[in-house]
Amino acid sequence: MEKELLIGDESHTSYGTDHLHAPRVAQDASSDSSPFEGASAPPYELLDNRPIDEEEDSGKEVLCGSSDQLPHEEHEGLHSHLTERNILSVSEYDVKEALLRFAASKCCYRTAPAKGMNLQKLTPLNTYRYRLETFTETRETYSASGIYNGGFVDSPAVAPPPAPWEIMVDPPPLFTDCEMHLPIPHSYSVENCPNCKGRGAIMCQSCKGAGKKKCSACDGTGTNTQEDYNVCSWCAGTGDNRCSSCRSNGWLKCRRCIGSGILLFHTELTITWKNNVLERIADIDSGLPNHHFKDVAGKEILSDEHFSVYPIVDFPEPSIDDYSRACIEQHKIQFASGSLHRILKQKQAIELLPVTKAEYEWKGKLYSFYVFGNENQVYTKDYPGKCCCSLM
Ligand SMILES: [Zn+2]
Ligand SMILES: [Zn+2]
Ligand SMILES: [Zn+2]
């Protein structure tokens, strides 16, 4: 049930609390272990069978897959911010100011209703945003080639080339997209150019290797039928013209190997670091479409970062548990199987997104709008002061 606050009620509480607490997780991730070793946590499916906490009566606690007891202080902190769901996040002044700013920013909205409205009621409809960030490293190889100018070749005969994941590189800062290309040592070899099959030249396609082409003026006859069957002046009666494409050679120098017929090949490694983000908004059916939250910020009430995070359990808004489980599972399927990707770090967070529904009267009729996000953005469908062009 949503609490309502009537205008004039002095019980308005400012939004936010100062004592936020780090989330609890069951894993004991060692900071000095290699990111390539994968998750140090037990399989998260086990967590669904954890024992039910005995503190049900004192309210639910939010855990990230841990059945450990939280210290008393942390219990209180978690409980207090969860009650903010039904607390007004803006004042009457903020709401009026937000609508006025909104109307002023639209060319077709008159500001008179925003200035002169009679505010009737404010209803807190705060919601939550769940976000999962999975920082992955992807290693792919491909064959690359270049001109061989002679000299030493670092071939597999020197030493066996390392496998893609055996090559040590410094990753970029966490959760930052980046790409790196580097040749794999000992993967070099000199081989025939595939473009010319080692010949150094390719056949001229214009003359099919003949070096000459049928004279187009006399159609290869050598005589000019237009001028009393005189000798064709274009081909001097030969019926052929030299091929200008290959200068009568019939062959062209191979551009890929510059005529040498050989190339220096190696295996190139591409490493891609990517921060993969999944976001879900708890659907509380407030009347404010969820996509409007895309560009607004909220207040982070839970943040959890590990090599592998666990699904959140027992969050008061049950859909957050579901989103957490589904998003983690989706990224697990996407990145935690096969040899192409590795998960280096995961981060999940829950934000409280402030939403207030404001109802007001203007010229004897009732209207409403929403103020949402830390930025006090406005959404309204029935603003009374629109002029003609906005109705088209
Ligand atoms: Zn070639
Ligand atoms: Zn030619
Ligand atoms: Zn001719």
Brief characterization of the structure:
This protein is α+β, with helices and mostly antiparallel strands and 392 residues long. It contains four helices and 17 strands. One zinc ion is lined by residues 204, 206-207, 211, 243, 245-246, 250.
Give a description of the structure.
- This protein is of the alpha+beta class and 392 residues long.
- Among the domains are: 5-132 and 274-309 and 345-391, no CATH class; 202-253, no CATH class.
- It is 12% helix and 30% strand.
- It is built from four helices and 17 strands.
- It has helices at residues 72-82, 92-105, 112-116, 318-335; strands at 5-6, 118-124, 127-147, 178-183, 189-192, 201-203, 212-214, 223-224, 230-231, 240-242, 251-253, 262-281, 299-306, 341-353, 355-362, 365-372, 377-379.
- Strands 3, 4, 5, 12, 13 and 14 form a six-stranded antiparallel beta sheet that branches. A five-stranded antiparallel beta sheet has the order 1-2-15-16-17, covered by helices on one side. Strands 6-11 form a two-stranded antiparallel ribbon.
- A hairpin with a 5-residue loop joins strand 8 and strand 9.
- The longest helix has 18 residues, at 318-335.
- It is elongated, with a radius of gyration of 36 Å.
- The two termini are 38 Å apart.
- Mean pLDDT is 81; it is low at 1-61 and 66-78.
- The structure holds zinc ion (3 copies).
- One zinc ion (ZN) binds at residues 193, 195-196, 200, 254, 256-257, 261.
